[in-house]
């Protein structure tokens, strides 16, 4: 059998439901195509495109992990950091591109970008972390983790929240919108620089601080390098396609399904876009691997706040779209308080199920608030 045939078989196996039960949800891809291109049903297009993104994100993550196993630890960490939030980057990037080319949709697209980014931070900090602590605490009375490493992530989150608070405070104080946008753009450049320094700190100069005491099994690649890259490219293209359908159907779907756009952006988009990653964090917490679980939950929040959000502001700047870090007083307050609550709960280096329940209670209250706004 030729190398090309072997590569094709490897990619097809990754898409097989026998490989992962979540792959059954890939049926949502052709259903989305039918509703968007033939039936012209925006409500169903929105629902099924959102469902389709979930297994495709899982395949992207699987391919990235396979590629990372063949690289150095530093490069592997960078790959995981970049592709771990690829869905958010694709959705936000498409929304910004749409805003740049369709002035009549610009306001809605900016809301989609801002709410999806805020929703990703809140979802990771409250929902994923809460479920992880709850499930881990049910299976283990007391769990510990590498507190010094997590402290740095908490500090980065607070710094990013500061960059959101100031533009919001200026806006509440009656500041000029152009000044707020300019402030956000320069603040985003600072955040991106800090993200680069944080990667250098974590992966190079102080990597010993992030070494876990948990037993880690050495994994061998299960796919060829060509298979992994083929799978990553194919899954990314399909995610981009589904995200394009999703972005362009949000406005109509919100009206058709009688669902607030704010709720869709803050709650639904992050939930489906990160469902596979969320599932992993909860499962490993049940196995008492809290360092890995918290690295997924807190690490994803840090990447969104310090890398993806400022990156989107800079991209919008290039595209001529006035996107700022002023996400609205309620959204910013919710993010700030969520960071404080999460830092407070994780401050002692131990966790239990009640702390997880507290985080889930906070997320439930916020979800009801965004539904009623």
Keywords:
mainly alpha, 2 strands, two-stranded antiparallel sheet, A middle domain of Talin 1, globular, 373 residues
Kindly describe this structure:
This protein has one domain: Up-down Bundle (A middle domain of Talin 1), CATH 1.20.1420. By secondary structure, the protein is an all-alpha fold. The longest helix has 34 residues. Strands 1-2 form a two-stranded antiparallel sheet. Helix content is 78%, strand content 1%.
CATH class: Mainly Alpha
* Proportion in helices: over 70%
The second-level CATH architecture is: Up-down Bundle
Shape: globular
What is the third-level CATH name, the topology? A middle domain of Talin 1
**Count of separate DSSP helical elements:** 14
Identify the CATH homologous superfamily.
NCX, central ion-binding region
Please indicate the count of domains. Answer: 1
Poorly predicted segments = none
| Tally of strands | 2
The description of the largest β-sheet is: 2 strands, antiparallel
The strands making up the biggest β-sheet line up spatially as 1-2
Helix and strand content put the structural class at mainly alpha
Q: Give the SSE order as H and E letters.
A: HHHHHHEHHHHHHHEH
Summarize model confidence as the mean pLDDT.
84
Strand content: under 5%
Radius of gyration: 20 Å
Measured distance between first and last alpha carbons: 59 Å
């Amino acid at each position: 059998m030729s190398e090309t045939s072997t590569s094709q078989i490897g990619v097809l196996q990754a898409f097989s439901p026998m490989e992962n039960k979540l792959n059954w949800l890939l049926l949502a891809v052709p259903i989305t195509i039918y509703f968007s291109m033939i039936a012209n049903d925006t409500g169903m297009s929105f629902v099924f495109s959102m469902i389709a993104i979930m297994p495709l994100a899982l395949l992207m993550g699987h391919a990235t992990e396979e590629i990372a196993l063949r690289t150095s630890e530093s490069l592997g960490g960078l790959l995981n950091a970049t592709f771990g939030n690829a869905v958010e980057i694709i959705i936000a990037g498409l929304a910004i591109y749409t805003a740049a080319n369709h002035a009549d949709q610009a306001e809605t697209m900016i809301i989609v970008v801002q709410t999806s980014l805020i929703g990703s931070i809140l979802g990771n900090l409250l929902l994923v972390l809460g479920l992880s602590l709850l499930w881990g605490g049910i299976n283990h009375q007391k769990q510990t983790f590498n507190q010094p490493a997590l402290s740095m992530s908490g500090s980065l989150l607070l710094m990013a929240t500061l960059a959101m608070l100031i533009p919001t405070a200026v806006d509440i104080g009656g500041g000029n919108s152009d000044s707020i946008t300019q402030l956000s753009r320069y603040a985003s450049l600072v955040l991106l620089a800090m993200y680069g320094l944080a990667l250098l700190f974590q992966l190079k100069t102080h990597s010993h601080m992030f070494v876990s005491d948990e037993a880690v099994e050495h994994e061998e690649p299960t796919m060829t390098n060509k298979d992994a890259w083929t799978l990553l490219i194919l899954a990314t293209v399909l995610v981009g396609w589904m995200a394009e359908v999703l972005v362009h159907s949000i406005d109509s779907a919100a009206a058709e399904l009688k669902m607030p756009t704010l709720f869709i952006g803050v709650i639904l988009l992050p939930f489906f876009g990160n469902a596979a990653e969320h599932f992993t964090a909860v499962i490993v917490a049940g196995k008492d691997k809290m360092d890995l679980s918290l690295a997924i939950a807190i690490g994803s929040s840090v990447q969104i706040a310090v890398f993806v959000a400022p990156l989107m502001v800079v991209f919008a700047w290039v595209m001529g779209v006035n996107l700022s870090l002023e996400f609205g007083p309620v959204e910013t307050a919710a993010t700030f308080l969520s960071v404080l609550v999460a830092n407070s709960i994780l401050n002692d280096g131990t966790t239990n199920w009640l702390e997880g329940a507290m985080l889930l209670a906070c997320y439930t209250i916020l979800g009801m608030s965004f539904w009623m706004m």
